[in-house]
Amino acid sequence: MTDPATLEVHKALADDTRFRLYRYLGLSGRAVSVRELSRRLSLHPNTVRPHLRRLEEAGLVTREIRKGQAVGRPQTLFQAAEVVTGEGRDYRLLAEMLCGLLRDRRDLQRAATLAREWGQYLIARRGAKPGVRLPAGRNLALLQEAMAEAGFEPRFRRQGRKSVEVTLRACPFRDLADEHRELVCTLHRGLVEGMLGGLKPPLTLKEFKPLTERSICRLQATG
Fold first, then answer.
1. At a CB cut-off of 8 Å and minimum separation 6, what does 167 contact?
2. 16, 124 Cβ separation under 8 angstroms
3. Contact 137, 191 (CB under 8 A)
């Protein structure tokens, strides 16, 4: 049976808003205020606070009270807590079996199409609605959240007003890359293209460099 602590973690993260808050805190790597969370995720502070309490109850978030130099109320900051649930599944054998089904060029094209559809889905479920243009900062925040959810650990660096360089410091398909390099990179590229195309307005993948270093991929996108 699943232990109660693990069950509480899963239940807390099952809510999309709480998942977004937890991912943002994790990617920030620092203590963050409610004001910053509400601004960056386009949420009202009164919406953010109860979700943070729920994450705190599940042991996913810690809080600290920081006194400022100016006179006034101390500031409450929140930070993601590293959680080890003890659960895990190894799907390597299943992945190897499925990779064996994709043999020729047509199979690779179908895999790329499927990956793009999944990339678009990961963006759409985070709030990118058809016909609604988002501010540039919010657009990139959606992209960062979707990439993080897929397991890529993204780092962004703006290059002027219309271009961004993204370093993906972890490849979720890395274990299969040695034996199925072409398929893995096809899926990776398709997933990224789908995410970029699902943004409002969309971005275009200008450059894609898979595994430039061990488990690190780099790409450049333009708008």
1. 154, 155, 157, 216, 217, 218
2. no
3. no
Strand ranges across the sheet with 32-33 = 32-33, 75-80, 61-66
Token pair 């409450």 is found at 76
Contact (CB, 8 A) for 113 and 191: no
For 210, phi then psi, to 5°, come to -75, 140
Name the percent of the chain lying above pLDDT 90.
24
Q: How far apart are CA 119 and CA 122, in angstroms?
A: 5
CB neighbours of residue 191 within 10 Å: 25
For the chain, how many residues are written? Answer: 223
Compute the mean pLDDT over every residue in the chain, rounded to the nearest whole number: 82
DSSP for 168-207 reads: E---TTHHHHTTSHHHHHHHHHHHHHHHHHHSSS--EEEE
Task: Report the C-alpha gap between 154 and 148 in whole angstroms.
Answer: 6
The span from the CA of 60 to the CA of 180, in Å, is 36
Nearest residue to 79 via CA among 43, 26, 36, 41: 26
Residue 37 identity: L
Q: Is the distance from CB of 121 to CB of 197 less than 8 angstroms?
A: no
Show the domains of the chain with their CATH numbers: 4-80 (1.10.10.10), 104-222 (3.30.1380.20)
| pTM score of the predicted model | 0.59
pLDDT digits (tens, 9 = 90+) for 85-106: 545 556 677 777 778 778 788 8
**3-state secondary structure at position 152:** coil
